[in-house]
TrEMBL record:
Protein name: AAEL005842-PA
Acyltransferase domain span: 33-338
InterPro entries linked: Acyl_transf_3_dom, O2_lipid_transport_reg
Segments traversing the membrane: 31-49, 70-90, 128-146, 158-177, 208-225, 246-264, 270-297
Protein species of origin: Aedes aegypti (Yellowfever mosquito)
Pfam families tied to this protein: Acyl_transf_3
Lineage, highest ranks first: Eukaryota, Metazoa, Ecdysozoa, Arthropoda, Hexapoda
Recorded GO MF terms: acyltransferase activity, transferring groups other than amino-acyl groups
Keyword RNA-binding: no
Keyword terms, alphabetized: Membrane, Transmembrane, Transmembrane helix
Amino acid sequence: MIRMPLKNVEDFEAQTNSAIFPVINSLNTHMITFFFVLGGMVLSVGFLNHIDRSKGFTLRYQWKKLLNRLARLLPAYAFIIFYQATVFKWTKKTPVAFKFVDYCSEHWWSNLLMINNVVHLSEPCLQYGWYLGADFQLFLIGLGIMTSIWRFPALKKICIGAMLIIAFAVPGIVIYLEKLDATMSFDMRHALNQLREYKEFLRYYTPFYTNAGTYFFGMIAGMVYHHVSKNSISVASRYTKQAFQYVFVLLIVLSAFLVILPWIKVEKPSIFLSIYGSALKAVWGITHATVFLMYAFKTDSVQVAFLEHPILRVLAKLSYSIYIVQYSIIHMVYSNLSVPIRYDMFNTVS
């Protein structure tokens, strides 16, 4: 929509220049941590349950997990990549449609190899697919960590310590070395190019190593759940709720600071921005991890019963396919709109 001629440009600019917009944009940016934390937690819980059932160390389970994951991801992914590389270009009906450029006909292989968050970032095939690449890479790393813990139990504390160090240190180091802002902001010139030249997006948002911390928080949460589920869940539920309250307050404070951050002139590279950006990302990950633990321990709550409803289970299974096709549908719709269009906060009208 940003790439379309607008009738009411001033309304759009007023929205993006509002004081609360940096907080809203941060919420949008950091919601991706939800999925990384969830992926890490599911991996560790499943792996630890397998260790409990297993009679001895083997690599068979790891290969099975890897092959099952590829079997779930690749067929639908390959189909939509083929569509983008062949059929999609014939759906463009208006001159403005050619603002929506995709590179699947050239770079399809990087997506199928799950390295599209590393190469061709300025000429992506299915740009949103960076998440699949990063998540798959973190899955392999997480699988390696869990395998090491299984084979050498004495390494467990060392691995957890290393994961925590990476979680808190790596984002800040990247922010400092790359001379970045503390978090992704919104700039019209970057949006017009679909973020393909936006340094914060390319160097901070999409790499697996800057998202590793949130994935690791999920893995650690899974370890906590596995341990506690064998003991007193009621006690753990109380402590988890208290932990969530403290973390949530910290998240509110750090997020509220974004209102004044754009007005603070800091020369880059900045240690302050590095510490703040790393803390903000970590707190988002910890918040999601504590939320998952809190609901995992609420076995008899109304919320859990609702989330376990069969309809939601079906929708959850369909969500990946919806995620895969969203780009093609959105671009096809916008590329066939009459222009200029009128924009408001919740809809677009030709």
